[in-house]
Amino acid sequence: MANPDLPQPKKLRQTGQFQPRWEDLNVDCLANVFGRVGITALLLSVPFVCKSWYRASLDSACWQRLILPDVDTEIDLGNEGFWNSDNEIEAVIDRRPEIFRFDTLMSRFEQEYQTGHKCLSDTQFITFVVKRSRGQAIFLRLPPLCQITLLNRVADVCHGLKGLSLHRCSLIYSSSIILELIGKCKHLELLSLRGGSNNLEELLLQISIHCKKFCRLLVLNTVIGREDALAIVNLVPNIKYLSLRKSYIHRDNLITLFRGCKELVLLDARDCSGFDGGDVEILALASQIDKFSCEGSRNGDWNS
């Protein structure tokens, strides 16, 4: 039975007859499939196919990967390879921002569910999505400038997270709540920081204390200084997957990471600045790990 607290589709689109019929498929099977299609399809497509699909889409198993669209990143963090395997270097790059824009999703949601233009705030919408997971979310990506009320809600219910992606704006204005959230996520394995972070050491300290399975860190478009490199080496020395896409990192700090992170199997330093991709010492150290990529990187100032 549909939850009366949740918005309902304005109507269910008619489908033709199939053998076997969609409504006869096992709900658990449908939920397993729907959990892989992404938030946009789960909200705007799946519920409108037939009543069976609509009912299955309400199952919390469909909402374990809450990868909400962003507004400024070109990396598709919803790509299955990024979250669940060691193929980060082959992660999908999509330069069609309208596909992943959060405001576009909000607008289409209001249209499909006839909630009225701007009837829902960003916080109400994301809270609605988080509620559907019923505390079962495994992966979560939040857009920038999340309200404190939303972050408190997430910190209260999303304790089973294995992957968390945050924008630096959330870290600047709500750092204490973010630290509280990380402290509750005992199973966290992956942290993605978009737009940089001014408190990387503080975040990694909480991870070193509470998240014993942590092994993946992505820091996009920031400056990796000496203190940041040492924090990675000292606080999460067993890290296996490290991505520094579009960041500035001096060669000495990159060498510190190679020498200090003994368990490293992948380092993605594409489109970075601060070191020469042909540096003999760097290449010698990189040869000791399974995957290293530095295409597009150059020895120069950040964003020069």
TrEMBL record:
Transmembrane domains' residue ranges: none
InterPro entries: F-box-like_dom_sf, LRR_dom_sf
Annotated SUPFAM superfamilies: F-box domain, RNI-like
Protein name as catalogued: F-box protein FBW2-like
